[in-house]
Design brief:
By secondary structure, the chain is an alpha+beta fold. The protein folds into two domains: 161 residues, Four Helix Bundle (Hemerythrin (Met), subunit A) (Up-down Bundle), CATH 1.20.120.450; 85 residues, Nonspecific Lipid-transfer Protein, Chain A (2-Layer Sandwich). It has a four-stranded mixed sheet. Helix 3 packs parallel to helix 6 and helix 7 packs across helix 8. The radius of gyration is 19 Å and the shape is globular. The two termini are 26 Å apart.
Length: 264
């Protein structure tokens, strides 16, 4: 009998609202302090420079306000675990589009200030159950904010990688990112033979095979939150992470390399 379908995790919409605004604030502060030379640096996202990455972050976060300006859809089409994770953005295979190019030509501090104000105003007093239309379909606002937390955390790490800055992460935003990507792995490879541990935020079971009932499971993978985010989005190689001791894996079924990135 196939394993039961995993139910989507529920997230607190009030905490999510606070988290995404806080994480965008961290990025805004960092971008505001970048020099012309730093903005011209390359990133690990194809041909994008830091300026284009910064513009993309503001552009996609600002789309939250735009979605809330539209009429509410009649019903939800997808849930967090139904909708495809956007491989182009999160796995690093992005390219410059017209919207990003236009945004990159703007004054970035002004763009970030305007975006922060628009999104904060749009989210004020809105229920997490409110439906919004996205490119993947109509979803609950709370679920949409989880994906915004993922994108903000992932791209904060991209920005840190490109500039060498030690950037802060809002705890709730990082937790939401880690949990969604862990749940996505469990949905991609359902089962109970491997336990993936990402302390202090998530523990999930995945991969078909014998399910343990008590005690230490025979197949355990453990890593830290940012290493998991990088593995799950294709920004770090499994073998390299193992070699650098950023991942511990025990048991004959604990090699997750064939399942990574989860955004593929």
């Amino acid at each position: 009998m196939p394993p039961a379908r995993k139910r989507a995790r529920r997230y607190d919409p009030v905490r999510l609202r606070t988290a995404v605004l806080a994480q965008f604030g961290h990025v805004r502060e960092a971008v505001g302090g970048l020099t012309t030379e730093q903005l011209a640096l390359p990133t690990r996202l194809g041909d994008w420079t830091v300026r284009e990455l910064a513009a993309h972050i503001a552009q996609t976060f600002g789309a939250v306000a735009g979605a809330l300006d539209l009429p509410e859809p009649a019903r939800a089409d997808v849930t967090l675990l139904d909708r495809p994770l956007p491989t182009a953005e999160w796995a690093g295979a992005v390219g410059g589009g017209t919207g990003t190019a236009v945004a990159a030509s703007e004054d970035l501090p002004a763009l970030y200030a305007r975006t922060a104000g628009e999104v904060e105003s749009a989210l004020a007093g809105v229920s997490g159950e409110r439906l919004v239309q996205t490119g993947a379909g109509a979803v609950r606002l709370a679920d949409h904010l989880v994906t915004r937390a993922v994108e903000l955390v992932v791209h904060t790490d991209d920005l840190a990688d490109a500039t060498g800055l030690d950037l802060p992460y809002d705890r709730q935003a990082l937790a939401a990112c880690v949990r969604l990507l862990a749940d996505a792995l469990a949905a991609k490879a359902p089962g109970g033979s491997v336990e993936l541990r990402i302390p202090p935020y998530a523990v999930v079971q995945c991969v078909e095979g014998p399910r343990h009932t008590r005690g230490t499971p025979p197949n355990v993978v453990e890593t830290d939150p940012l290493t998991w985010v990088r593995l799950a989005t294709g920004r770090e190689d499994w073998a390299a992470a193992r070699e650098a001791a950023r991942v511990s894996a025990s048991g004959e079924r604990s090699d997750l390399s064939a399942l990574l990135p989860v955004t593929a």
